[in-house]
Specification:
The chain is mainly β. It has 2 domains: 134 residues, Jelly Rolls (Sandwich); 101 residues, Jelly Rolls (Sandwich). Strands 2, 3, 4, 5, 7, 8, 9, 10 and 12 form a 9-stranded antiparallel beta sheet that branches. It has a 6-stranded antiparallel beta sheet with strand order 1-19-16-21-14-13. The chain has a two-stranded antiparallel ribbon with strand order 6-11. The longest helix is centred in the middle third of the chain and has 5 residues. The protein is globular, with a radius of gyration of 18 Å.
C-alpha cells in the first residue's frame, strides 16, 4: 500500500473536556479495513493550550512543523520528531503564544487519545518506547543543488525494533528508489523543503508519503528544483499489544 498525503480535508475544530482545543486536518481517506487504515493528519493546537499526558493504542510519529512550545520539560519547534510506541504515556504538549502545529503519522488506525489518569484502566502493562529527535533545520536550496546525487543517512536507528529517523536530500533532475523494509510496519516520507514527484503527483512542504511494509520498491523524482525529506520508519507493534 502506498498513500499520498497531498489532498487535505477542511480543518475541523475540536474541544476536549480537559481544556484541549485544536483544529485537525486529515490527509488520508480511511480504508475499507479500518484497522489497517494508515493515518496522516495535521493538528493545529491553539496558543497557550495544553494537550495533557496521554497514550495511544498504536505506534506513532509526531513531526512538529510550526510554532513553539514544550513537550514535557523540553522546548520544541520545527522540525523535531517524536516517536511513541503503543501504550506509552507521553506529554504534556504545551503550545506557545503563537500555537503549535504538528503532523501525526500512524501505519494503523487509532481510535483517539487515552488521557491519564482518567483512562488508566485501559493502560496495558508491557514494553514502553519513546524517542525525541534533534531539531532538523531545513537546508538551503543552494546546499542541495550542489549535490551530484541524492544523499540519505539515518540520524537515529534502532536495529532491534526497526525504529528509524533519517534525512534524504535530492538535487535537481535526480531520482531515488525507496525500498521499504519487510520487518517494520511501514515508512513515511515527510517533505520539509522543496518538492518531490511520485507517479506524476507533486508532494510539497509538510505533505507526506506512506508505504506499508513489504511494498515493492518505488521511485521518487525531483525535476527542476530540490527536495529534503524526513524518512520515518515505523516499528512493528509490540506482540504484547497485538
Amino acid at each position: 500500500m502506498i498513500k499520498i498525503a497531498n489532498q487535505e480535508e477542511a480543518l475541523s475544530y475540536h474541544e476536549q473536556p480537559n481544556g484541549l482545543k485544536y483544529y485537525r486536518q486529515d490527509y488520508f481517506e480511511r480504508e475499507i479495513d479500518d484497522s489497517r487504515s494508515p493515518q496522516s493528519y495535521l493538528i493545529k493546537q491553539l496558543p497557550n493550550i495544553t494537550n495533557p499526558l496521554h497514550f495511544h493504542v498504536q505506534n506513532q510519529f509526531q513531526v512538529f512543523i510550526e510554532g513553539s512550545g514544550y513537550f514535557g520539560r523540553h522546548t520544541i519547534g520545527p522540525y523535531i520528531v517524536h516517536y511513541a510506541g503503543a501504550y506509552t504515556g507521553y506529554g504534556p504538549i504545551v503550545a506557545g503564544p503563537l500555537g503549535l502545529d504538528y503532523l501525526t503519522l500512524r501505519s494503523m488506525h487509532d481510535p483517539g487519545a487515552k488521557f491519564l489518569p482518567e483512562k488508566k484502566s485501559q493502560f496495558i502493562q508491557g514494553p514502553k518506547h519513546h524517542f525525541t529527535s534533534r531539531q532538523f533545520l531545513p537546508s538551503t536550496p543552494q546546499s542541495i543543488w550542489g549535490l551530484k546525487s541524492p544523499e540519505f543517512s539515518w540520524d537515529h536507528f534502532e536495529a532491534d525494533v526497526g525504529l528509524g529517523i533519517g534525512l534524504l536530500r535530492m538535487p535537481s533532475f535526480t531520482s531515488y528508489l525507496v525500498r521499504p523494509a519487510d520487518n517494520v510496519d511501514g515508512i513515511f516520507l515527510v517533505v520539509i523543503g522543496g518538492a518531490v514527484y511520485i507517479d506524476g503527483v507533486v508532494i510539497g512542504a509538510k505533505q507526506n508519503i506512506f508505504a506499508s511494509a513489504k511494498e515493492k520498491p518505488f521511485e521518487i523524482k525531483v525535476l527542476d528544483g530540490y527536495v529534503e525529506l524526513l524518512v520515518l520508519q515505523m516499528p512493528l507493534k509490540e506482540k504484547t499489544y497485538q
